[in-house]
Design brief:
It is a single chain. This protein is an alpha/beta fold. The protein has two domains: about 60 residues, no CATH class; about 60 residues, no CATH class. The protein contains four helices and seven strands. The protein has a four-stranded mixed sheet, with helices on one face. Helix 4 links the parallel strand 5 and strand 6. The chain is elongated, with a radius of gyration of 22 Å.
């Protein structure tokens, strides 16, 4: 009887796990729709009063997305700027947009720290399944950043991958 060999374990394939770059911390959405007059208009005096009275310390060490979910409303840019100023002393990060936008921002911060040249001429699998939801935009961004370096790029698990990119063979 021959010995069973784990070919995947002995493979040169690198498994890149995006969930390893998940930023810890609570995510919070600050939606100003309830601060609109009749659900349609942002009145400066009322908004400034709310900003002044709001307990901003509740966002201590949290990642915050600021938005207005009311449709067809024009919010003056200064309102977003004012929220950022109030959140700055407390929040770990502040992003204009949805919680998904916040998640993309946090992952992008982590991807910026990676030296993708370490994947030079290597076959890489970007792991698909994880316990943490990774935004689709981050899979696209990781692909964009890896493509100049990798020999081959796949998606999934080392034992079951979907080919995404293979560097063309250079003609001599």
């Amino acid at each position: 009887m021959s010995e069973i060999v784990n070919r995947i374990a002995n493979s040169p394939i690198i498994t890149f796990k995006l969930e390893d770059y998940h930023t810890e911390g609570e995510r919070v959405l600050v939606d100003i729709k309830d601060q609109l007059f009749h659900g349609m208009i942002l009145r400066e005096k009322d908004f400034r009063a709310w900003v002044r009275e709001h307990d901003w310390s509740q966002y201590q060490d949290k990642h915050v997305a600021i938005t207005c979910s009311a449709e067809d409303v024009i919010i003056q840019v200064w309102a977003w700027m004012l929220l950022e100023v109030k959140l700055q002393p407390f929040a770990k990060s502040v992003v204009f947009g949805t919680l998904e936008d916040l998640e993309v921002y946090l992952y992008m911060q982590e991807l910026d720290k990676i030296d993708f040249s370490e994947f030079q001429d290597r076959p890489v699998v970007i792991k698909g399944c994880s316990d943490i939801k990774v935004p689709d935009a981050i899979f696209v961004e990781a692909t964009r950043r890896m493509q100049p370096y990798v020999k081959k790029l796949s998606y999934g698990e080392p034992c079951s991958t979907v080919p995404v990119y293979k560097r063309p063979i250079e003609k001599k």
